[in-house]
Amino acid sequence: MNSAKIKILVVLGCMTFAAAKTYAQNNLQRIDSLVNNLCQRNELSGNVLVASKGQIVYKYSHGYADVADKKLNNDSSAFKLASLAKPFTAIAILQLEEKGKLKLDDAVVKYLPDFPFNDITIRQLLSHTSGLTDLQIFQAPHNADTSKIFSNADIIPAIKADKNAVIAKPGEKWSYSNTGFGILALIVEKITAISFGDYLTKYIFRPAEMSHTYISSILVNANPGDKNRTKNYDFLSYAPSRLKVADSMKKYKIALITLGGMLGFDNIISTTEDLLRFDQALYTAKLLSPSTLQEAFVPAKLNNGQDALCGWGKTRAYYGLGWMILCDSIYGKIVFHPGGDIGAVTILLRNITSNQTVIVLDNVTHRGVHATGVDIMTLLNNRHILADKQSLAKIYANCLFEKGVDYAANRLNKLKADTSHYFMDERELNSIGYDLLNDGYHIEGLEALKLNTVLFPNSWNVYDSYGEALAKNGKKEEAIAMYKKSIKMNPGNNGGKDALKRLETK
User: Fold this and answer.
1) Mean pLDDT throughout 144-173?
2) What string of DSSP letters covers 337-401?
3) pLDDT digits (tens, 9 = 90+) for 71-111
4) Candidate from 117-126, 142-151, 421-430 with smallest mean pLDDT
5) Using 50, 70 and 90 to split pLDDT, how confident is the model at 1?
6) Phi, psi dihedral angles at 46 (to 5 degrees)
7) Looking at residue 139, what DSSP letter applies?
8) Of 15, 20, 377, 478, which alpha carbon lies 20 to 30 A from 342's?
9) Euclidean distance between CA atoms 421 and 126, whole angstroms
10) Cα(473)–Cα(441) distance, rounded to whole angstroms?
11) Beta carbons of 219 and 263 less than 8 angstroms apart
């Protein structure tokens, strides 16, 4: 994939001695090497910014903002933040607390009388300890009306209609809930009598001088003429350099457009440099007093007195009030928040001990972005990172798709013994096989699923999947043999039994 690369390697201004300069330069070169490798492997597409004490020391742009128009990402590219929107919602709530408009331990029903649970507090919504479930509450109403675009006004009715809307008692455990942050946005609107977007613009974006940041949803677009906004893409699992427009929420099987009108947990557009301005504004009293902000950076307590732990990616972290706190504090206190959606993966990390900032914004579904941000912060502090192993399933599938069966098999055989650098995951290869089949590449899909039976001969599921693929491709006898083998290994495979019965009665 063609790319635009914009790179700055700057020796930190405060380092005056030659040794310190070399130390800083080496760290930035290691960061640059990491970023370049990820881009070459099609695992990063977007903007990276690193700053120390508010001064940019490294930035890099890669990939397409618009594939069809061949428009490249650059310094000005504006990205959807996904859940990186949550810290803004938290700051709005904390600002209202400072003004005496609410108390964090107030019950939600005090401000939203229709909310069906009397014992859930604002603090619990902020810390994801309310017990509320996530966006699956919209699956049933979406099934009833697939054309409906939901807004925040639909959250409470959806909660009321879902008997599984609460999965734990308030304060009992940490459980990520986008719906909870949507409710927080409703509270802001109820107290202030202005729209949530207008509130963020007036009390957060403008004071922080974030002139390129705005709310954008299906229902509200504060900057419809933004030529710098990136489009959101997913990649083909078997061809990661080939992008497709993001169009669905795979987790819940709900169209992105369906939930595209909701605010509080998503739908903020911003740039890396605007986020740096936001980061620096948090060191002053422009947005919140230092004491209030510090409250947000303290791990929430569960009912049993334990800190709310929310491991994220390969990190271990606590959750405070709209912010995560890295458990590892060896090089300072790191507070951060990631965002992840189809076609938007983001992270902002702040080392508030030494005023270091790492921002990564990606407009392709590269789930490794969160770990990349942590790795960059680690390298910035002269610590070593573990080299990430590459997925053999992806490498094999790409070779299969691009160069054929024989080339893919040879490539696999050369790499599979190198377990220190590569790994093979049964489920990933299984999923890629289905993707190939569903996209019409039947020979390649069958080949991938057949390989899974060779690599993982003790798994009943690989034979079940291969049997299904064979049946769909008219290979009845071979499919029957695979289903029988799967059922013998797992007598509880009722789906396989039903499929086998249908085949044998044809």
Assistant:
1) 93
2) EEEEETTEEEEEEEETTTTEEEEEEESB--TTHHHHHHHHHHHHTT---PPPPEEHHHHHHHHHH
3) 999 999 999 999 999 999 999 999 999 999 999 999 999 99
4) 142-151
5) very low
6) 160, -145
7) H
8) 377
9) 39
10) 11
11) no
Please answer whether residues 367 and 399 qualify as being in contact, where contact means their C-beta atoms are separated by less than 8 angstroms: no
Three-state SS at 365 = coil
Please state the rounded mean pLDDT for residues 15-25.
55
Asked if 159 contacts 209 with a C-beta cutoff of 8 angstroms, the reply is no
Q: Amino acid identity, residue 17? A: F
Question: In the beta sheet, which residues pair with residue 243?
Answer: 235
354 carries an active-site annotation: no
Closest CA to 125 of 138, 109, 114: 109
Nearest to 66 by CA among 269, 275, 363, 274: 363
* Inter-CA distances, 139 with 114, 136, 252, Å: 21, 5, 7
**Quick one: tokens of 261?**
């009108």
Q: Examine the pLDDT at 8 and tell me if it is beyond 60.
A: no
What is the rounded CA–CA span in Å between residue 136 and residue 218? 20
pLDDT grade for 259, boundaries at 50, 70 and 90 = confident
Structure confidence at residue 16 as a pLDDT band (50, 70, 90): very low
The Cα–Cα gap between 407 and 399 comes to 7
Q: Considering only CA atoms, which of 145, 271, 161 is closest in space to residue 213?
A: 271
Q: Which H or E run includes 423?
A: strand 422-423
Strands 317-319 and 324-326, by their bridges, are antiparallel
Q: Kindly tell me the sign of the dihedral angle through the C-alpha atoms of 301, 306, 312, 315.
A: positive
pLDDT at residue 279 is higher than 70 = yes
Is the pLDDT score of 249 beyond 60?
A: no
Name the DSSP class of 298: S
Annotated catalytic residue: which of 83, 177, 237, 459? 83
Dist CA 374 CA 359 (whole Å): 10
95 and 203 Cβ atoms separated by less than 8 Å: yes
Task: Give me 402's structure tokens.
Answer: 């691009």
pTM (two decimals): 0.89
Tokens standing for residue 257: 């457009």
Domains of the chain with bracketed CATH: 80-380 (3.40.710.10), 392-504 (1.25.40.10)
Q: Is 361 exposed, middle or buried (0-12, 13-18, 19+ CB in 10 A)?
A: buried
Among residues 324, 300, 350, the alpha carbon closest in space to that of 125 is found at 300
**Can you tell me the mean pLDDT for 250-258?**
57
CA angle (216 as vertex; 224, 186 as ends), nearest 5: 140
Q: Which amino acid is at 466?
A: Y
Structure tokens at 229: 């906004």
d(CA 271, CA 82): 13
Strand 390-391 versus strand 344-351 pairing type? unpaired
